[in-house]
Amino acid sequence: MAEIILKNYQLLPIISRFGIKLGFGNKTVEEICANKNVNAAFFLEILNSYHNSNYFPDNHLGDFDVDVMVDYLTNTHTYYLKSKVPHIELFIDKMEREAQEENSRNINLLKHFFNEYKTDIENHFKEEEKHIFPYVIDLEKTLSTNNCSRELIDKIKHEPIEVYERNHDSLEIKLADLKNLIIRFLPPLSCEDDCEHLLTELFQLEYDIEEHTRMEEKVLIPKVKMLEQKVLEYYGV
Length: 237
What we know:
The protein is mainly α. The chain is built from ten helices and no strands. α6 runs antiparallel to α9, α6 runs parallel beside α10 and α9 runs antiparallel to α10.
């Protein structure tokens, strides 16, 4: 496990979302996953997906249960809202307190942009946790219990995951606007180091969100399509 972090330190926050903390010793991935009750196959799919943007885990989608995926995605949402976003807000608040008069308006605009982005991701995550994740779990439960409701069949036929896929909002557009605002139009700041740190945090958040979205589109959605098809075939619909 230690060699994974040494090879790509950007996987650190990904690993922590599984409840795995530093202090691995010489334990293998399999040993640590077993100790933490983490599905090793899914853990490796996620790490490979983040490590290699061209990785497509099509051949391994059946190796893990949906509830494992939903737990990970929910933990990721919590990481963004409880850790990453508040950390960025601290930089913006500090810049606001220390701003020179000529920068006050621009920093207020920056803060407004980021607050809008925060609202966007909160709404996006709520939609997934309230509607998408329960639907996904219902699909798998139906196959494991051989008990399917008419409501679920109707949803598969009229509101399949493909509808969600077509309307899957991009969370990166406002971040790009925010970075452009800082780089192109923010006058020189007395708190230059804070501004550079803020930009670094925004770039890292953008990268992480892009990978998170890609993982949903390349892992979650294909998995759900597979389950939808199995349910329809099993019940002869």
